[in-house]
């Protein structure tokens, strides 16, 4: 039998034509070894039970996997007192000419490079004829596995991963080391989203003598550079070609092999901003290619800093989980969704203005007072705009007045979504900036606009300039906290909010933002404390009472939530408050009352998918199935509209998946669920919704896999009990085990 070593699946296999008989990879460039008998993928002489000691140093924790190379274990290195990946090599392989030398070189070469994006090798040894290597243990998955689940990645995440690979290559190339086998299977993404390059087994020190073995191709054909395929002398740029292929695959969802470089079809499918970078990395001739990993890293970083790309909230920038498990309420079947707590730009008083016309001063002060005291209502904002326009009549060239108008129009836009308000806000801010680009009030409202547009880094830069002028401005620190929170910089955001609290501990707006911060983290009891304080500071704030009620709902304190929500409704009839009150009644089994308030929420906000989905859940409880299905179809339509507006928002994708499943659209449900997971893989709600989606669709095995992930992330028994779609799984031992595992 003719056997070859397939570098893609790491096994000795039969070659069928030009393809691997196991994984279908192109084996054109491999050399067959007709006399070599393919070793078994495992064997009793390499099998060690949990708790066994190997080489008087390693305590086996568990068997991770096996292949043609041998078996990989998770183990404890008692000498290092650390978890390691222990690769035990098939004895037959170590008898191949040059094999041991290649592995020794892998350790020696990799040890020369110390970098956070390169997997560290610890040791190589020979225990009674069994060759082994130990390396850094990484909790995560390979990029190949990730792409197998998601198909493709969002632009920002793909560029982030490519940048980290470029950083690893930069460190290796600094030592004149060429990887030569860069591919998704040799890139790990750990549970925190960090990226590590591994497997320098084919690495070559430039100028060193190459070691070759029969049957082992020097690289993986699908990721080889043109010069590598031609077996020409290689330099550092060969790795950059592989980087380009990996980036192209992450962005397109397909290897597109054997199509070389960039085709017109690929160009048209990609963001035009990305195309020049791929052109540079995938140039046919090395001399036309990006000259170095450092230059590649700079190009990728420049793209990530571009507002057209950097607005994405990526997998690496999700909110940290609280210590211990927390009780979560999910937007799931039979568990009506809670509307997000109301958020808007709550106004703090700016620094007293410089001298201006007395009448202008009077109208300006009145306008700002309206924004501070009544900026949560359209009436209050309108009154502020009237006063600020009067101030402008007396001081038409005052940047402070124009900044106030910009703030008022942005507040109205946040409240109403009016395109006219957005245009007026942008125009006022533009005028203010032209009049004085250094005034803190101007910088702050300019940052406010950037935050509305998702340009979080740009907002942060404006706020840094504002703080340079006024380091003790609580209003600026609040906005800075919002910017950093949007960037996923949770610790820095907390520092900014706490600095604002230190400056103005009893300021209603500061307290509200701290509540919103904790809510975003899922720390609902802590959020409730801040909302309660805000309500005490400003008893006529409908938002404070509504958010307090929502926080109690998230904490499953249903009875406590109702009076807060009712008090909010007396102050302002808001759709989100109506929906949350209806949800409280839903949990209490008062389905007729819930229907009344869900329908009122729809009257107030007819284009909001959550209200329609909640109504569908309630109608099911009322055994009005056809009406429920109609409500779900409407929810799915609106959720799809929301995804079109914000395709990179995981909540929108998860909602679409849920409502499509309930409406009976399987293809839509699975695709949206996949997108939500890709955007936020560590979110318990996303995982739980994906489990519910698959249960609704009758995909029980997949449902249980997703439910296991949700439980590991914090889903509770009460969450599971609240989803009636799981009821038919109660006799499944896997389901019962997950219920026991949940807290």
Write a brief structural summary.
By secondary structure, the protein is an alpha+beta fold. Among the domains are: 44-136, 2-Layer Sandwich (Phosphorylase Kinase, domain 1), CATH 3.30.200; 140-310, Transferase(Phosphotransferase), domain 1 (Orthogonal Bundle), CATH 1.10.510; 349-436, Tetratricopeptide repeat domain (Serine Threonine Protein Phosphatase 5, Tetratricopeptide repeat), CATH 1.25.40.10. Helices cover 54% and strands 9% of the residues.
* Overall average pLDDT: 79
- Basic shape: globular
CATH architecture of the domain at 140-310: Orthogonal Bundle
Radius of gyration equals: 30 Å
Helices, by number, come to: 32
How far is it from the N-terminal to the C-terminal residue, by CA?
A: 55 Å
CATH C-level name of the domain at 140-310: Mainly Alpha
Structural class: alpha+beta
Question: What does the largest sheet look like?
Answer: 6 strands, antiparallel
Question: How helical, in percent, are the residues?
Answer: 40-55%
**What do we call the CATH homologous superfamily of the domain at 140-310?**
Transferase(Phosphotransferase) domain 1
- Uncertain segments are 1-5, 7-17, 29-44, 205-218, 310-336, 339-348
Range of strand content: 5-15%
């Amino acid at each position: 039998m003719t056997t070859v070593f397939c570098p893609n699946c790491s096994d000795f296999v039969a070659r069928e034509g030009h393809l691997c008989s196991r994984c279908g990879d192109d084996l054109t460039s491999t050399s067959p070894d007709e006399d070599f008998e393919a070793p078994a993928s495992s064997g009793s002489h390499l099998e060690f039970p949990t708790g066994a000691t190997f080489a008087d140093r390693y305590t086996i924790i568990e068997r991770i996997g096996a292949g043609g190379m041998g078996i990989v274990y998770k183990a404890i290195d008692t000498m290092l007192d650390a978890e390691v990946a222990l690769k035990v090599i098939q004895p037959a392989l170590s008898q191949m000419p040059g094999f041991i030398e290649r592995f020794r070189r892998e350790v020696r070469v990799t040890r020369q490079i110390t970098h956070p994006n390169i997997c560290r090798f610890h040791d190589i040894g020979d225990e009674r004829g069994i060759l082994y290597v130990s390396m850094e243990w990484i909790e995560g998955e390979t990029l190949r596995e990730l792409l197998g689940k998601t198909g493709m990645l969002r632009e920002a995440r793909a560029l982030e991963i490519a940048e980290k690979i470029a950083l690893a290559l930069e460190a290796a190339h600094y030592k004149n080391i060429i990887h030569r086998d860069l591919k998704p299977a040799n890139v790990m993404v750990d549970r925190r989203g960090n990226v590590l390059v591994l497997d320098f087994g084919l690495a070559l020190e430039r100028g060193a003598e190459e070691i070759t073995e029969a049957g082992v191709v020097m690289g993986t054909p699908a990721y080889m550079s043109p010069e590598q395929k031609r077996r020409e002398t290689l330099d550092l740029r060969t790795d950059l070609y592989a980087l380009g292929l990996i980036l192209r695959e992450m962005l397109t969802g397909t290897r597109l092999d054997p199509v070389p470089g960039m085709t017109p079809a690929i160009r048209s499918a990609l963001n035009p901003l990305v195309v020049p970078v791929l052109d540079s990395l995938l140039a046919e001739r090395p001399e036309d290619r990006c000259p170095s990993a450092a230059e590649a890293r700079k190009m990728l970083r420049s793209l990530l800093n571009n507002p057209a790309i950097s607005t994405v909230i990526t997998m690496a920038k999700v909110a940290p989980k609280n210590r211990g498990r927390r009780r979560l309420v999910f937007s799931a079947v039979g568990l009506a969704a809670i509307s997000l707590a109301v958020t808007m730009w709550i106004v703090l008083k700016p620094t007293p203005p410089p001298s201006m016309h007395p009448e202008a001063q009077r109208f300006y002060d009145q306008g700002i007072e309206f924004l501070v005291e009544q900026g949560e209502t359209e009436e209050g904002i309108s009154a502020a705009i009237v006063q600020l326009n009067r101030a402008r009549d007396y001081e038409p060239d005052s940047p402070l007045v124009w900044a106030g108008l910009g703030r008022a129009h942005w507040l109205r836009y946040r409240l109403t979504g009016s395109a006219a308000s957005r245009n007026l806000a942008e125009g006022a801010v533009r005028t203010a900036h032209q009049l004085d680009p250094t005034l803190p009030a101007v910088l702050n409202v300019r940052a406010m606009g950037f935050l509305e547009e998702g340009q979080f880094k740009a907002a942060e830069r404006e706020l840094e300039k504002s703080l340079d002028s006024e380091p003790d401005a609580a209003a600026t620190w609040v906005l800075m906290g919002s910017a950093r929170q949007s960037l996923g910089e949770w610790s820095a955001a907390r520092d900014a909010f706490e600095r604002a609290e230190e400056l103005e501990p009893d300021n209603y707006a500061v307290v509200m933002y701290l509540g919103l911060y904790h809510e975003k983290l899922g720390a609902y009891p802590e959020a409730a404390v801040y909302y309660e304080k805000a309500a005490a500071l400003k008893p006529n704030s409908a938002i404070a009472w509504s958010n307090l009620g929502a926080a109690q709902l998230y904490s499953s304190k249903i009875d406590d939530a109702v009076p807060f929500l009712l008090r909010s409704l007396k102050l302002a009839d808001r759709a989100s408050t109506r929906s949350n009150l209806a949800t409280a009644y839903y949990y209490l089994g008062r389905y007729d009352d819930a229907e009344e308030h869900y329908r009122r929420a729809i009257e107030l906000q007819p284009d909001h998918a959550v209200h329609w989905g909640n109504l569908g859940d309630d109608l099911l409880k009322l055994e009005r199935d056809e009406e429920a299905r109609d409500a779900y179809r409407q929810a799915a339509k609106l959720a799809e509209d929301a995804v079109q507006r914000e395709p990179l928002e995981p909540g929108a994708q998860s909602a679409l998946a849920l409502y499509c499943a309930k409406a009976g659209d399987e293809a839509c449900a699975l695709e949206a669920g996949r997108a939500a997971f890709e955007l936020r893989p560590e979110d318990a709600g996303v995982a739980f919704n994906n489990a519910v989606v698959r249960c609704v669709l009758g995909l029980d095995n997949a449902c249980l896999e997703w439910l296991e992930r949700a439980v590991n992330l914090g889903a509770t028994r009460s969450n599971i009990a609240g989803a009636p779609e799981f009821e038919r799984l109660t006799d499944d031992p896997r389901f019962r085990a997950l219920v026991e595992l949940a807290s």
